[in-house]
Amino acid sequence: MTTAFLFPGQGAQVVGMGADVATAYPVAAAMFEQANRILGFDLRKVCFEGPAEILNSTTMSQPAIFTMSASLLEVIRTESATSGIQPQITAGLSMGEYTALYAAGLVSFEDGLQLVRQRGEAMQAAADATQGAMVSIMGLDEEKLRLLCREAAQGELLEPVNFNCPGQIVVSGTVPACQRAVELAPQHGALKAIRLEVAGAFHTSMMASAAEALRRALSACRIAEPGNIKTLANIDAEYYSSVAAVVDGLAKQLTSPILWAKCMQRLLDEGVDRFYEIGPNRVLTGLMKRVDRKAKVVNLSTADSIKALVEGA
Q1: Catalytic site residue 94?
Q2: Active site residue 188
Q3: Cα separation, 277 vs 297, whole angstroms
Q4: Is 123 exposed, middle or buried (CB count within 10 Å of its CB: 0-12, 13-18, 19+)?
Q5: Which residues touch 153 (CB under 8 Å, ≥6 apart)?
Q6: Which neighbouring-strand residues pair with 193?
Q7: Residues 237-271 pLDDT 10s
Q8: What is the value of pTM for the model shown?
Q9: Pairwise CA distance, residues 253 & 247, whole Å
Q10: What is the C-alpha separation between 22 and 16, in angstroms, rounded?
Q11: Which residue among 69, 71, 136, 203 is the active-site one?
Q12: Number of Cβ within a 10 Å radius of residue 139
């Protein structure tokens, strides 16, 4: 059996996440306390109690999701009934790639947490300076979506950036171009077009300043060489082969499309037969079902889901 651990990215956060897990498992509570000490503020309180507008901010949601996912991972690693579940491969959607690298042993919890905090701050700064947006388009293939982007752009930046699953692609660009994409989408046959609650045009050239800042932070970070557990990169659906590749991949990720559907299809083609989504919500579980309805995905996002896994182990 080949097992992959999957980790969600920004957008998966929800107020209350982790509270039940921390109550049920002391090791999870300890991870939140450790995060508080590292960051110097009460991340635990924001995750457990909100308010939503603070948790949903780019600067807060990224360290929050990383910590939540890491706390769940720690429970799986330390519970006797689940400690034998070991991944051969890890992957994470956008910011989730940092959690995937942590799970594979390439970065420490502290370094990973500091990196996602710096990433969120750099992205917010770039977003404030550029005024961009993102729109999720449902029901169009890539060719039709690119036609929509060309018509809606009107000379401005607008391009597909998140290839999440068949029939769901996110476009990113200037605010006016994104608004035109929403208005024109039905004429191109889209089932739905939804403006996302994000701060800017992520995964485009409008994030160039953030990518530069992040590359400096990554270059100064202690990153181990890839070992027995392989980690799949979002930007090209290839496995990381060196520290230099990790630094390059994570920096380029901010200005490059996320090829999640391609990543998942590669894992399926290579015979991965058990997937665990580890983190808040069920985003990746839903996307995988759109890639392959028969794929076996175990969602671990709550104390109840861990209990069910323990009882079934």
Answers
A1: yes
A2: no
A3: 7
A4: buried
A5: 173, 177, 180
A6: 137
A7: 999 999 999 999 999 999 999 999 999 999 999 99
A8: 0.97
A9: 10
A10: 11
A11: 203
A12: 17
